[in-house]
Amino acid sequence: MDFLTAMKISGSALKAERTRLNVSAMNLANADTTRTIEGGPYRAKSVIFAAKPLAGSFGAQLDSADAKLREVQVVEVVEDQAPFKEVYDPSHPDANEEGIVMMPNVNVVEQMIDVMSARRAYEANVTALDAAKSMALKALDISR
To answer: What is the pTM of this model?
Structure first.
């Protein structure tokens, strides 16, 4: 694998993890939002990743020993279809006649774990990117 391929793979993973962090932060920020523009409580969102083949001609991919290398891409951001939480709070402005408020389906603990996981994956890809950059610079120093 050449240095640019390693950097491209790490770069795509950084972009995907940044999207995951942004979605988790949005979920945490809206954990108590009972009224959205669409109407009703906020629905938690999740990111779906997929492996995308590296760009190149078919012949180049066939000749390459690294033909199985993949980039990471965000396929879509989907809404969680889990039911909303029902909370008894008759003083809340969005409470129904029985005093029940429909709260978002955001699990704060799950979202915090997702943030920590995305952060560690992001850090690992930064380290891999730095290692590839360092190896490329050392190769240039050797050629002098």
So the answer is: 0.80
